[in-house]
Each structure stands twice: as structure tokens, then as C-alpha cells.
Amino acid sequence: MKYEAVIGLEIHAQLLTDTKIFCGCSTSFGREPNTQTCPVCIGMPGVLPVLNRKAVEFAIMAGLAMNCKIAPYSRFARKNYFYPDLPKGYQISQYELPICQQGYLDIEVDGVRRRVGITRIHMEEDAGKNIHEKDSSLVDLNRAGVPLLEIVTEPDIRTPREAAVFMRKLRTILRYLGICDGNMEQGSLRCDANVSVRPEGSEGFGTKTEIKNINSFRFVEKALEYEINRQIKLISQGESVVQETRLWDSSAGKTYSMRSKEEAHDYRYFPEPDLVPLEIPREWVDEIKGRLPELPDEKKTRFIKEYSLPEYDAEVLTEERTVAEWFEEAVRLGGNPKKVSNWMMTELLRLLNEHEKEITDIPLTPSHLVKILDLIEKGTISGTIGKKVFSEVFLTGKDPEVVVKEKGLLQITDTSELEKMVDEVLKNNSKEVERYKKGETKLLGFFVGQVMKASRGKANPKIVNELLKQKLSES
Ligand code: ADP
Ligand code: ZN
Ligand code: MG
Q1: Of residues 442 and 154, which shows the higher confidence score?
Q2: Which of 3, 11, 83, 468 could form an S-S bond across to 151 if both were Cys, CB 3.0 to 4.6 Å?
Q3: What's the CA gap between 96 and 120, in Å, rounded?
Q4: How many angstroms does the Cα of residue 8 sit away from the middle of ligand 1?
Q5: 325-375: pLDDT as tens digits
Q6: pLDDT tens for residues 73-90?
Q7: Please, what is the average pLDDT of the chain?
Q8: How many whole angstroms separate alpha carbon 358 and alpha carbon 45?
Q9: How far is the centre of ligand 2, averaged over its atoms, from the C-alpha of 189 (Å)?
Q10: Which long-range contacts (CB under 8 A, 24 or more apart) does 245-249 make?
């Protein structure tokens, strides 16, 4: 029997507002514990929450970007539970009337397009953080009251890979909108994955389990793969899947049970009496719609059309808005689109990765790249040297021409100097010379390579080619 998986995601995204959702405390990350708190967010009795307008605006932006209906009337609700990092004894969330509903996002995996329904997006406050030490546990409430969006998908996802691709796409959109930094390591984007399996081709759903708090794209995929196999094994052995919440142990590569359905919380939701219902005028939604940025899918399509880029290039370049803007700036300054794209996808993205930097905090500018391309085009430097110059400018922000001069990287075009190198190489590789003369002409590339190496990349390859051909045809 063949099985297929059914997956639905619940994603929490921390919003990039300056202040918390119901008070004026700062939301910045990594400060001294409990220095960004006030009577409202530490849950003192008798205080009143005041809704942060920016958080609502961000929720509307997310809803529009994910093709949702924005509710003209929604409401906050109390979700009651006890935990040390939740001093009020309840979390203000939304329940039966969320701000956004019935949206979708399209993803593509291996050429197969799939529409993933967005059931709802609602606003809520984050809890604090418990820090467990050897003999004690401590509570930090700096995060208590930071605004979150909870984004819930329909059970439309079918493979772990699709789940990871969906997460990436969601992250890209949130970052384009500038409403969440998408940092999974720091917990500003977290994912709970619900999964069940069923015989391929059947319509109904099997019993699901939920894997909580997955904090990387890789783990989303791995945890789901493990969990799907575990469920299939159980069912094939005639046993059944128990509905429960599980946790992913990344070092063991396994999920394990956290709590069963019986232990599940009953949150006793009820409408939040301290906040009036939220009424959103249509004009406000329209105004926000009018200033949404161009989103990744539209940008990708435009890049393919406007710059004749292959789909792959357009996909890579539009994954980050800042990278896409860097590309367009380089093209605007006269760079050839495909050349700029090649250099960005290989050299630039590699260096960013290596140095763990964002494109916004490097001294290398689009204008630097265009200059380097120019120097190569004019034959001042070779492509190989171009890469060296690029790395240097990446680190220092120096003018490419200055780097070329300072490092003595000018291309060698002096024929007599090159001739010496060619002679040397031919002398040292007499066997290959013989083979070449017997007809193995593809060895030409080998000789060129040797001369380039001897010149440390500085020889002009065109002249070297000509010289070699000429010398090798002499007997
Ligand atoms: P619960 O009541 O347990 O919270 P919901 O119906 O609210 O369940 O759904 C929570 C998440 O689980 C959603 O993302 C939904 O798409 C997904 N989901 C629901 N049923 C299944 C199922 N049988 N298999 C996989 N995912 C499911
Ligand atoms: Zn506060
Ligand atoms: Mg639910």
C-alpha cells in the first residue's frame, strides 16, 4: 500500500513594530532581562491594554499579500492558561473572529505548482521566556507582549519539501513587506507542523500529530520526514496513530511525545473585555493596498520579461528584496543583466554566505561590480583577476581600479613577456607537445591553463592562445 502525507502549518511571526502590541515598551531583542517591561506587559491588576495601530497595519499587509479577506469587524479573545512566563494567566489573542481569512499562496516544487490555502491570520501577544539554570528557573518578560501574527494553513501541503518551500516563501513575503525579520534562530519565525498520512488516492484525513516549535527550514523537512515514516510504520503494522503534540529533537533526529489529546489545554476562550472590537474601514485597507511593495512573484515575472533572465536566476535574485534592488541598480548603471546576475549568484552570494553578511551591510556597491565588468570587457584584467578584485572590494570598498593598481593585477598584454612564458611552458611539457603534434589538439587548453597559472591569472588569454597555436604549428 502506498501512503501520502497531509500537512498543515501554523506559523508564528514576530512583528517588527518598535513597541509592544498593548503597551509602549520597546520590542528590541537581546536586552538585559526585564528591562523592557511595564505594569501592562507584566500583568499587574487593574491595567488596561491599548492596541498598537502599527501591529494592525502589519496584519492587514500580511493578509493582503496572502490574498486574504480582511475582516471589517474582528475581535480579540482571552486564551486562558497558566505558565510562569505568562503572568496575567491569559494571552490576548483572536479566536472566532480573526482579522484575515480565506487566503492562499502558490508554491512550486520540481515544476509542480500547488495552491496552499491560508485558513486565517490573527494577531496575538507573545509570552515571556523561561530560562532554566542548574538550581533555579528565571523569567524574562522582555518578550511578553511583543506582537505576533499566527498564520494557519489549510491541510493542502503534501510533502516535507513543499512544507519547507512554503515556509521560505512566507518568510520572503514577510521580509519584502518589512513586517518580520524572519530570523528563525532568534525565534522571530516559528513553525508548528501538523501531519497525518492516508492511503494514496483516498479523500478522508487520518489522525494527525502536531510537531511544535520547529526553528529551521531544514528541521521542518527532517521532522516531517521522520514523523511521516513513523506514522506509516504504525499503520502498516495494524496499529493506529495517537493524536498528540510532539517535539523534534534535532540531535537525535527524532520526534517524541510531549502531550496527548487528553492532556491538551482547554483554553476557555472568551471575548477580551478590556478591548473594544476592531473595526477596520475599507478606506484604510485600500490605502495600505496602494502602497504594498512589488511582491516576490511579480518581481520574478518582471525580471524574466524585462531583463531576459532565465527563471532560475530570477528566482534566486528575487528571494530577498534587497538583493533584487541591488541587481536592478547594477543594471541601471549599465551592467549587462545576465553578467550581473552571474556575478551576483556565484561570487556575491558565496561571499555573503561565507562572511555571514547581509547585502545591505557590505561596502561593495552595484557601481563597483559594473566597474569590474567594464575592466574585464576592456581587457584591462582577466575574468580570474576580476574575481580577486571583487573579493577585495567586497571587504574594503576600495575602487576596483585602485585595487588593480595597488595589487599589480593589470593584465599582461606585452607579447614578448608572454612569449617567454609560453616558451617556458612548452619546454617543461615536451611530452604533451609531442602528443599535440601527433594530433591531440585538445591539449591546447592544457597549455593555456599552464601559462595562466604561471602568470598567476594575469596573462591575456587571447594573446596566449594565438602565441601557443603559432609556436605549436612550427616544427
Ligand atoms: P486543532 O483543532 O487540533 O487545532 P485545526 O483544525 O485547528 O486543528 O488545524 C490546525 C492545523 O492542522 C491546520 O494547519 C490544519 O490545516 C492542520 N490539520 C487539520 N487536520 C489535519 C489532518 N488530518 N492532517 C494534517 N493536518 C491537519
Ligand atoms: Zn509594557
Ligand atoms: Mg486549532
Answers
A1: 154
A2: 11
A3: 10
A4: 6
A5: 999 999 999 999 999 999 999 999 999 999 999 999 999 999 999 999 999
A6: 999 999 999 999 999 999
A7: 93
A8: 44
A9: 22
A10: 245/209, 245/210, 245/211, 245/212, 246/209, 246/210, 246/211, 246/212, 247/211, 247/212, 247/213, 248/211, 248/212, 248/213, 248/214, 248/219, 248/222, 248/223
DSSP 407-446: TT---B--HHHHHHHHHHHHHHTHHHHHHHHTT-GGGHHH
Task: Please name the amino acid found at residue 119.
Answer: T
Q: Residue 302 Cα, ligand 1 centroid: separation in angstroms?
A: 36
List ligand 1's pocket residues with C-beta within 6 A. 6-10, 152-155, 194-196, 205, 208
**For a pocket test of ligand 1, which of 150, 194, 207 has the largest count of ligand atoms closer than 8 A to its C-beta?**
194
Q: Could you tell me the pTM of the whole model?
A: 0.86
Point out the ligand nearest to the CA of residue 194: 1
Q: Mean pLDDT throughout 165-183?
A: 96
What spacing in Å lies between the alpha carbon of 19 and ligand 1's midpoint?
32
Q: Which three cell numbers stand for residue 163?
A: 512544507
Instruction: Give CA angle at 57 (51, 63), nearest 5°.
Output: 120
Let me know: does 243 contact 209? Beta carbons within 8 Å: yes
Q: Mean per-residue pLDDT for 268-294?
A: 96
Q: What ligand 1 atom has the least distance to the C-alpha of 195?
A: 25
Q: Is pLDDT above 80 for 237? A: yes
- Residue whose grid cell is 571587504: 395
116 Cα to the center of ligand 1, angstroms: 14
287 φ/ψ angles, rounded to the nearest 5 degrees: -65, -40
CA atoms of 77 and 371, how far apart (whole Å): 58
Beta bridge partners of 114: 107
The helix (H) or strand (E) run that includes residue 302 is helix 296-307
179 neighbors 16 (Cβ within 8 angstroms): yes
Grid-cell match 502506498, residue found: 2
pLDDT tier, 475 (very low <50, low <70, confident <90, very high otherwise): low
Q: Domain map of the chain by residue range?
A: 3-287, 294-406, 415-473
CATH number of 415-473, picked from 1.10.10.410, 3.40.50.150, 2.60.120.280, 3.60.21.10: 1.10.10.410
Instruction: Work out which ligand 1 atom sits closest to the CA atom of 153.
Output: 14
Tell me the ligand closest to 79's alpha carbon: 3
